[in-house]
Design the sequence.
């Protein structure tokens, strides 16, 4: 029983970063109705920038964090300009494949910056874990949870208390109508991309401070986690993305404890597959409407 | 012929099967990120048959195709009614499940005092049927292209046949097709099984070409590549995906000059190409244009599916 | 009709050279060191006959490489290995495209025709056998 609760604790904390990854993914999907396969590599490139500063300049955690987030945002804008903005409305598959081509580009760029397979990443804290009764709480995990919660709240504020956020929600609801009432859809989309990539960058930073190392595999990993969490929670739903991330974290923690890392990965995909087959809209999503979720006929 | 050239041409041939597999599904309107799973199943199935059970190559390849088709039907049935995007992600999930299963699976048999067979994440080495039968690289190349030519003949027939039109109709608008009396589900399952078989043949050929496969090869990168080939080369004809493979592997070979920047150049080229031609080089419009030029007065039975992208 | 005939002929030609020969296999032992130029490695290959365990001398050996995680994307042009003084030992210099896990493809012809694949991890400081690729914690 204690194990289950401990795993749930750990799972929720790690799941908070998955939630952030899903949040970024959902922001992009919400406004574009397309999957961005470059999402993870975008974050990775930001992280590599941060790592570069750390490894060669001895930068502190704050600088690395800033570099990661800003780097991710800039790369996100690049991806948007090249893969999504120029595509006609019906060219959904083309933009997904384009984002995949850019994924390869970004991965190579990352390896050019830092050629080795593994690099150390500065941790947030090296203090000993807290003990709460029979449970262990790692301080860096707790910091991750706190930071993720703060970021999610910040994004919520942006979406619900700013004009920009209002515009985004309008676009998510119905892009054509938003355009008709005068919202600059293209500019807002670009800004949403930058915001989503920045959020992803923050999520990536948090994960890496816990892992304390970064490898070129991080890009694909981040894309997968964000995608799975988003699908679990329900495509296009922001509260769903957060819930999906936490659920994913808990599932992973339990699976890893009882069955080991390979079965953990298998179960993650099996759960995703089952959710898609049985309840594709996930925990909180809505059924895709005729004009909305379809990525177009390419 | 230069060894390296034979190797590159063989790679092109093998990957064409995978590209055609994704293309076939795309015709019926399904985006699959998971064809690499059937490629893997075909590779392991065929490899096990020759290396562990001593079957002749052809029988093993046929078995690989069958295994691919079977798996495709098994995953196709529950995902049949899924909306496009959900289907795409479901195929991705399935493919990763298959890959992880191969990472965990050990099936080794002692032959000649040595352990032969899939060894989990450490891969399946020693698929040496081609060497044991003394088939030299040129002959194997001929085998690959012979099978590919037969497959293309099948696609040419398909494009002209009622079934091919049916597939494209389903791809355009499945509900309309259903209303028109087409058994959409059955056709989709048929397309899925054919695509699975194609990927399975490709996998078997790949395993025997390289003599060594490991689960890591069959990751999502391979899957998205298979889709990308059709998108790059063009979705208007079966030559399209093959052209995509030729361009990909061909460009990769020529862009070698850029040593460490190959992917950057290549990725950029593909992204730019897709802005220009979102349905690939030989898309339906291009094919229609070619038809009109070559056979201006002939009325052809297969209407080109002209997909108008919104202005 | 014609394409079908053509393809069947190709296939027949391909299978024409088949003789089920109980051929022996080659075993390869590879050790590599980083060379002076970046991403270049000097590799020493010890070839042996799997059945007789004797060193395999006088073979024509060419070594290519590919990355398992991206098949055919980083196909390295095969380099011919030169025989060293000791019988069965060959040396080759490889020019790779990036660090990471590569599968070396050693094609042997001459007394024995075989292909041996050896996965290795190439880093800037050393080369070791690829670590067991079961997913580590968190898989990255």
Sequence:
């Amino acid at each position: 029983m204690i194990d289950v609760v401990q795993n749930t604790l750990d799972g929720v904390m790690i799941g908070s970063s998955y939630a952030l990854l899903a949040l970024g993914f959902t922001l992009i999907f919400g406004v574009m109705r397309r999957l961005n396969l470059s999402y993870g590599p975008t974050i990775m490139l930001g992280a590599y920038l941060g790592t570069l500063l750390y490894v060669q300049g001895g930068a502190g955690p704050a600088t690395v964090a800033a570099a990661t987030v800003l780097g991710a945002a800039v790369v996100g804008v690049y991806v948007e300009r090249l893969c999504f903005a120029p595509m006609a409305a019906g060219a959904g598959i083309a933009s997904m494949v384009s984002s995949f081509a850019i994924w390869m580009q970004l991965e190579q760029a990352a390896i050019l910056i830092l050629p080795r397979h593994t690099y150390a990443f500065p941790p947030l804290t090296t203090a000993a874990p807290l003990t709460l009764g029979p449970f262990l709480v790692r301080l860096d995990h707790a910091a991750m949870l706190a930071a993720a919660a703060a970021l999610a709240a910040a994004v919520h504020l942006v979406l619900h208390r700013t004009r920009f956020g209002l515009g985004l929600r309008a676009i998510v609801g119905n892009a054509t109508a938003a355009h008709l009432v005068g919202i600059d859809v293209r500019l807002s989309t670009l800004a949403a991309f930058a915001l989503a990539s920045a959020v992803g960058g923050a999520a990536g930073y948090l994960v890496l401070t816990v892992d304390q190392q970064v490898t070129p595999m991080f890009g694909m990993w981040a894309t997968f986690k964000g995608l799975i969490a988003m699908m679990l929670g329900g495509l296009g739903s922001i509260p769903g993305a957060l819930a999906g991330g936490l659920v994913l974290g808990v599932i992973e923690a339990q699976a890893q404890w009882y069955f080991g890392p390979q079965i953990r990965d298998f179960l993650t995909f099996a759960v995703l597959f089952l959710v898609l087959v049985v309840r594709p809209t996930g925990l909180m999503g809505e059924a895709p409407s005729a004009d909305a979720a379809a990525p177009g006929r390419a | 012929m230069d060894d390296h050239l034979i190797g590159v041409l063989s790679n092109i041939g093998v990957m064409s099967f995978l590209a055609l597999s994704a293309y076939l599904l795309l015709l019926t309107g399904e985006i699959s990120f998971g064809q690499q799973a059937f490629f893997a199943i075909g590779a392991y199935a065929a490899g096990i048959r020759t290396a562990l059970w001593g079957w002749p190559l052809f029988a093993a390849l046929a078995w690989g195709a069958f295994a691919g088709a079977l798996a495709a039907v098994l995953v196709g049935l529950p995902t049949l009614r899924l909306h496009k995007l959900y289907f795409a992600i479901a195929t991705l999930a399935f493919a990763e499940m298959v890959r992880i299963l191969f990472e965990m699976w050990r099936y080794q048999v002692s032959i000649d005092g040595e352990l032969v067979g899939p060894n989990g994440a450490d891969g399946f080495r020693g698929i040496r049927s081609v060497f044991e039968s003394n088939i030299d690289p040129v002959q194997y190349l001929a085998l690959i292209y012979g099978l590919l030519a037969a497959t293309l003949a099948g696609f040419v027939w398909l494009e002209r046949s009622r079934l091919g039109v049916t597939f494209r109709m389903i791809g355009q608008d499945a509900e309309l097709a259903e209303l028109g009396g087409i058994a959409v589900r059955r056709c989709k399952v048929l397309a899925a099984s054919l695509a699975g078989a194609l990927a399975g043949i490709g996998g078997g050929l790949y395993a025997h070409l390289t003599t060594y496969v490991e689960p890591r090869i069959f990751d999502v990168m391979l899957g998205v590549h298979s889709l990308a080939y059709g998108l790059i080369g063009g979705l208007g004809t079966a030559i399209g995906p093959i052209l995509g493979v030729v361009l990909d592997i061909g460009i990769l070979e020529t862009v070698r000059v850029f040593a460490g920047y190959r992917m950057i150049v290549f990725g950029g080229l593909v992204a730019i190409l897709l802005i220009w031609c979102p349905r690939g080089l030989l898309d339906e419009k291009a094919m229609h244009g070619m038809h009109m030029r070559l056979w201006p007065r002939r009325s052809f039975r297969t209407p080109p599916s002209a997909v108008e992208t919104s202005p | 009709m014609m394409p079908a005939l053509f393809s069947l002929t190709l296939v027949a030609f391909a299978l024409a050279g088949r003789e089920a020969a109980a051929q022996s296999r080659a075993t390869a032992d590879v050790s590599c060191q980083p060379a002076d130029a970046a991403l270049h490695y000097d590799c020493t290959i010890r070839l042996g006959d799997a059945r007789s365990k004797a060193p395999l001398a006088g073979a024509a050996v060419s070594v290519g490489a590919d990355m398992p995680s991206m098949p055919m994307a980083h196909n390295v042009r095969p380099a011919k290995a030169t025989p060293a003084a000791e019988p069965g030992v060959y040396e080759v210099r490889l020019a790779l495209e990036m660090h990471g896990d590569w599968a070396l493809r050693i094609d042997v012809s001459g007394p024995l025709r075989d292909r041996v694949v050896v996965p290795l991890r190439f880093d800037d400081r050393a080369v070791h056998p690829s670590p067991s690729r079961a997913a580590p914690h968190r898989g990255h």
About this structure: Residues 289-298 of chain A have pLDDT under 50 and may be disordered. DSSP finds eleven helices and four strands in chain A. The longest strand of chain A covers residues 130-132.
